[in-house]
Amino acid sequence: MGAPENGRYPGQVGIDAYGNGGFRFADMSHKGSLLCLPEGMQGWSVSTAAELTLESLSPVLAQAAKLDVLLIGLGSDIVAIDPAIRQALRDHNIIIEATQTGGAVRTYNVLLAEERAVGAALIAVEKAR
């Protein structure tokens, strides 16, 4: 893989830790929310589930052909996902699973280890659960 380029890690790796407002992966620390996609891992401007929109998920849609599953870590709470978002992802044959960020991180790591076509959109949390 390699070092981050332009705030983006050029590959997809497991997440070693989360909490304190960020994530640890590939011997690095990232502050804020995170998109984990086949073409790389990058910061994500979404900080609450209310900010989850089709526009905020546009990087996911741009890589839709490389994804079967998208895990959405909603932070500390679980909220309903906008039906328009569910339909747009379904139209791209992407299954979505929305849960608390901790559960999404754990499931992402398992599916990635199984070499599944998985992505994650993870809202940063302060406390790991």
TrEMBL record:
- Gene3D superfamilies of this UniProt entry? MTH938-like (3.40.1230.10)
- Pfam families assigned: DUF498
Q: Where is the signal peptide?
A: none
Domain of life from the UniProt record: Bacteria
Record-linked CDD domains: Mth938-like (cd00248)
InterPro entries found in the cross-reference section: MTH938-like_sf, NDUFAF3/AAMDC
PANTHER family given in the database record? NADH DEHYDROGENASE [UBIQUINONE] 1 ALPHA SUBCOMPLEX ASSEMBLY FACTOR 3, NUCLEAR PROTEIN E3-3
**What name goes with this protein?**
Mth938-like domain-containing protein
